Amino acid sequence: MAAPKRGRRASGAKGRPWRSLGLILVITAGLVAGMFASGHKTPRLGIDLAGGTSITLEAKNQPGKPNAINKTNMNTAVGIIERRVNGLGVTEAEVQTQGDRHIIVNIPKGTNSKQAREQVGTTAQLAFRPVLTLAQVGKSRQPQPSSSPSPSGSGKQDKSQDQKDQKDGKQQKDEKEQGDQANPSSGSSDSPGQGRAVTEGLTAKTATTDKSPTPSASESGGKKSPKPTAPPQPPQQPGVPAALAKQLDALDCTTKEARAKASEKAASTKGSEPIVACDANDPIKYALGPVAVQGKNVSKAKAVFDQQRGQWIVQMSFSDKGSDQFGEITGELMKKPQPQNQFAIALDGQVQSAPTVNQKLTNNAEISGSFTQESAEELGNILSYGALPLSFEESDVTTVTAALGSDQLKAGLIAGAIGLALVIVYLVAYYRGLSLIAILSLLVSAAMTYSIMTLLGPAMSFALNLPAVCGAIVAIGITADSFIVYFERIRDEVREGRTLRPAVERAWPRARRTILVSDFVSFLAAAVLFIVSVGKVQGFAFTLGLTTALDVVVVFFFTKPIMTLLARKPFFSDGHPWSGLDPKRLGARPPLRRGRSTVSTDPKEV
């Protein structure tokens, strides 16, 4: 009775291949169905295949911060840049570190990609600083900053009379026109550049004419006017250190390059120290006090369109700490004369706005001025996501056109097709019927690989670049090698004189060990390459590792079961010449089973 039980177990074991085949076919079908259900029928392509812009940012050493360039700050910068770019609606952007000092930003072609490029490296160090004094670009600082006409004209007339020997009438007219341009909508004595006001709840305004300290400022300025000598020496503004006043006089804001140099120097200065800075839009330069409120205390900023004034503005709200600091500084400034009742909103060392304060402000504020919708949204986005912990400069910018990307993709696909065709030709020529199993296994592996790559695009921003395509081509050889190892083990068993069905089962344990060791080495190499490499090389390593892992799955759950099933077919079991398992072609020995039966099973000899 024991023999029949063992026979039933053997029969049951022969039915197990269907379980493995059913499992892998269900998994493959699920992946393909998930790919179509996700709405993505093709893998997400990288910059080199789809076209776009790749920007390499290099971190710069900052004065007084020798250890600022570290892994923590670099990772923080990556997160901020990624949020900025995605906040503009740029889809599928890629931001990652490269080495110790570089960040790679890949921006695909699409909406807002140009705007995203403009702000990826913007440090966005926002600071609120009190204004100590200011001056027109190309002119000395002024004790009376107002250049627009005042209703109380006596102070203006005295000032003009005192300066008659120093400046001709045309120069006075130019100054007056510049002041009118700086404040076109009011007749107040606000200082130049304060047309962009910061308000609370859209109610606070710049200082009005009746509250303007123009007369006293003019009178004070008249007392401190220098003697009419050439060149004229500017008067000393109360509360401005002499060294800072000299820096303001020497500050060059006449050209774009000069303003960039000045802003870089101002941005690198410690917040506890005063600075001189250029206005970002108007021909004005400022001497500013220490930072009163840091930009990191801005909790939210957004661009809105002000219907009353018909212009775009940026509204801000502060954190609890920032609100207290903002209220304290505005409460102090409202008591001071111009221009010291102004505070400057400095972004990366450039003054974006310098409004006058006439009341204490606390939480909500706004920046207004000559904003377009795009520039307002850009500033709001930068302020919302914070300042970069490091300063960066573009070390390399590469733009790939869509046509060039399409050509590279076509070349990669052609290379893959040629490689696959050569593998199939070799399998058919050498293994004949067994090549059918190899081709079916390759198709299953290709379907799983394609589906997974497509699903990984929206799931984890995986992009198929040209090195990744190369990895997939190399994987064709790795996968085919696993089939060859198994087929050769089966052939070795057939050469030993065994029939096909036991040869398939006896060859599997030996082939399995070889396949696992080989794939483990390939996977380990891919993992190490992925960890130590950066940029596009990681695409090659990732694809190689993925296809190597799938090779193990396909061989165990598809190739082995289907080989077990086909071994039962007469075409293979009888050793047909085109089966690839013909004993005569393989030089097989006489069957081992026949030799044993001659020795031990003949009843006559017993």
The end-to-end distance, rounded to whole angstroms, is 25 Å
- For this structure, the quaternary state is single chain
Helix and strand content put the structural class at: alpha+beta
Q: What is the percentage of strand-forming residues? A: 5-15%
Q: How many DSSP-defined strands?
A: 13
The average pLDDT is: 75
Shape: elongated
**In angstroms, what is the radius of gyration?**
39 Å
Main sheet record: 6 strands, antiparallel
In short:
The chain is an alpha+beta fold. It has helices at 2-14, 17-37, 47-50, 71-87, 113-119, 153-162, 169-182, 214-223, 242-250, 256-267, 320-333, 373-385, 402-431, 434-460, 466-495, 500-532, 537-566, 570-573, 583-586, 592-600; strands at residues 52-60, 94-98, 102-108, 126-136, 275-278, 284-288, 293-294, 298-306, 311-318, 343-347, 350-353, 364-368, 391-400.
